[in-house]
Amino acid sequence: MGSFFDLVVGTVTQGLIYALLSLGVYITYRILDFPDLTVDGSFPLGAAVAAVLLTRGVSPYLTLIVAMAVGALAGLVTGVIHVKLGVRDLLAGIITMTGLFSINLQIAGSNLAVDRATDTIFTAAPTMALFGAMPLIYRKLVVSLILAVVFKLILDAYFSTQSGLLLRAVGDNSTLVTTLAKDKGSVKILGLVISNTLVALSGAVVCHEQRAFNSTMGTGQVVFGLATVIIGTTLFKNLGFVKGTTAVIIGSILYKACIQVAISLGLPANLLKLITAVLFLIILVLGNRRKSGVNANA
Amino acid sequence: MLELRDIVKIYNPGTITEMCLFQGFNLTVADGDFLSIVGSNGSGKTSLLNIICGSIPVEGGQVLINGEDITKMKEYRRYGRIGRVYQNPAMGSCPNLTLLENLSLADNKGRPFGLKKGINKARREYYREQLAALGLGLEDKLEVKMGALSGGQRQAAALIMATLTPIDFLILDEHTAALDPKTAETIMELTDKVIREKKLTAIMVTHNLRYAVEYGNRLIMMDKGQIVLEKAGAEKEATTVADVLHIFNEISIECGN
Fold this sequence. Notes:
The structure holds 2 protein chains of 2 kinds.
Chain A: H1 2-32, H2 39-55, H3 60-83, H4 89-108, E1 112-113, H5 125-131, H6 136-159, H7 162-172, H8 174-179, H9 184-210, E2 212-213, H10 221-235, H11 244-264, H12 272-286
Helix pairs in contact in A: 1-6, 1-9, 1-10, 1-11, 2-3, 2-4, 2-9, 3-4, 3-9, 7-9, 10-11, 10-12
Chain B: E1 2-11, E2 19-29, E3 34-39, H1 45-53, E4 60-65, E5 68-69, H2 75-78, E6 82-85, H3 99-107, H4 124-132, H5 151-162, E7 169-173, H6 181-197, E8 201-205, H7 209-214, E9 218-223, E10 226-232, H8 233-237, H9 241-255
Parallel strand pairs in B: 3-8, 3-9, 6-7, 7-8
Antiparallel strand pairs in B: 1-2, 1-4, 4-5, 9-10
Helix pairs in contact in B: 3-5, 5-6
């Protein structure tokens, strides 16, 4: 029974770490109505930056901040390609994602492991001072929970500001933003920057957790993000008091749980992406309600 | 004052479908004017509004506001002094935001959108007053999502939103065309009231000849990119729907409609 409980804790921890990515995708897909494929590149980008900095002995907390800054830059690149160069939303993301694959390898050199002696955010002194009494598995859970909740609350607060309101407006009816004498392109770029900041943070935390960077770890992360956003928002669409950000975090945990169940039932690891794709299709069809705004995105 | 000088507008230039709409078009709208524009489909009414707002580029000529050349100014910058209400009531607001959030956005036009609270609670009473004056019961729907309101309610809110901050020009782009006759009448009366109270300069494109005749102090009819009829002041007061309809029909017969 003990191992089952550990498995649950581990799955929830995974769900919470990846929830940061889901929050990022929530901004682009749900709020901006922009299917952003940059994620498949910016997620491993965060991991690559964190891995390199960790192995060089940089403070684990600082690695997260640097990863976020670099992720923001990736979002900026996609935004500029889309808005300033007039490339379609999907293609702009694909271009950045493709370029990032090489950049990630340049940053990390190759697949990179962080050895046991190196401190991560789960083992560094300040974390130990607070949660040192717990076994590592619970410490990971608590730290991940704190990260997910803190960033959820920051996002919630941001959405209620003037800038946040304008961001929500641009996905809903970009014409209105223009008549408010605001450049809708700049608002979109801002949204992509915030989104990829969170995605790269998620990648960095995954790197801390796994103590590794893998050049292919980004594959399928967009699909994961979209699936969790759709699961979360569809499940809670009739419960007005559940905020979108909360719904997305729960969606992420549920999704990781589904995958974990499939693996526990003996599903070969090679079939994982196929199951992911099928699961995503089912979710997409069941929750078929791409949001009904005044759509002017292409 | 708004001036269009020698405007040239060519659609699809350099292609087989090239179509020259305006060839040296001129129009001056003085401060305080309420100009109605009528004309058949394709006569250039909406293109005219789009040229004023910068939604489409021009191939020649100048657009001036109070003597300042804004021909090269980006569309979103022009809206700093222009308010616009569209034909489609959905265009004037965000369906997934509440009425209060929509009004708050509109209220902040012309100022930076920073990290201050998006909704200024102190303005709530003011919004309620503005909405109550419409007589549509919108003052009790501040927390309702815009998408849940009717077309007429959304258009009324769009009108309030477009005129909430000080603007030089109000552009009305067939803004009653998508509404039922009774609601259209209500919105038209509201429009006239808002224009009078806020002393706005307005340009209204409409297919409703009666509105064009009844409201405003100037009327022009357009055909194939040219002004074919212009009435202003006392002359406009004396104009009847029958007069306008007569000319309208003559043009239509010439075109074979």
